[in-house]
């Protein structure tokens, strides 16, 4: 028996029919008649020398051979689709798809993107704000900006500036809570999106950094960093804000950071793309703009005593 593969059209017909377990639905998906699809599957069965479907009155089921064949054919078409998309993207120098977390998008990227768009009108920028870790090969994404400790094997990765946290509040609240000790009685806002950090970068850690043994038992918790900062802007309380999330509000005066002690995490934002893709014109342009924008506010860090959280005494 020859190991020569059947025609690609026959494999595609089988894959769709096996996925739907319906010749009619598979034919509709592929834009052919049920008779044409049935012909392709019969051609595949002739090549294989055995049936891949049991035909019933109003349904089909996979035979043992069909069950053995289906996963590999599906994976093969998925790989082929991925390779095709990747190859097409290499010839496109005008479209740029970027993914980043919703908080960074709302608090840092969105207010600045008009500058990039104005400087590069030839680039069609598309943004996906999501916490899902997208696959740069399979998800048609060119650039990812991720926050964490950096499991970036196989990717081109550029770390961004260190991330630190410090209490922020409205100017009105700053008059009421003017010392670190006064924060013990303040309404505290908690950013639960940072719970994965080790060591933890939270309110107890900041209190230890200023020499106060206090573990807050109450407060308002948010699962998204931008929501926590928006609550602070609204005057709900005092948030332990991350550098990237608070810079805009600090510069515009909506928030103040009255205590000049900040705790620093080893987790960082990274600019990521596939290795080799960093030379594509639109990716290189976005990287250079992104790094230049972060450098514009680097001076803000100079106002703080920044203490690595790893150096703090244990609780």
From TrEMBL:
CDD domains attached to this UniProt entry: PBP2_GcdR_TrpI_HvrB_AmpR_like
Protein keywords: DNA-binding, Transcription, Transcription regulation
Tree of life domain: Bacteria
InterPro entries attached to this UniProt entry: LysR-type_TF_proteobact-type (IPR058163), LysR_HTH_N (IPR000847), LysR_subst-bd (IPR005119), WH-like_DNA-bd_sf (IPR036388), WH_DNA-bd_sf (IPR036390)
Pfam families listed in its UniProt record: HTH_1, LysR_substrate
Domain HTH lysR-type: 6-63
Keyword Transcription regulation: yes
Keyword Zinc: no
Family: Belongs to the LysR transcriptional regulatory family.
Designated name of the protein: Transcriptional regulator GcvA
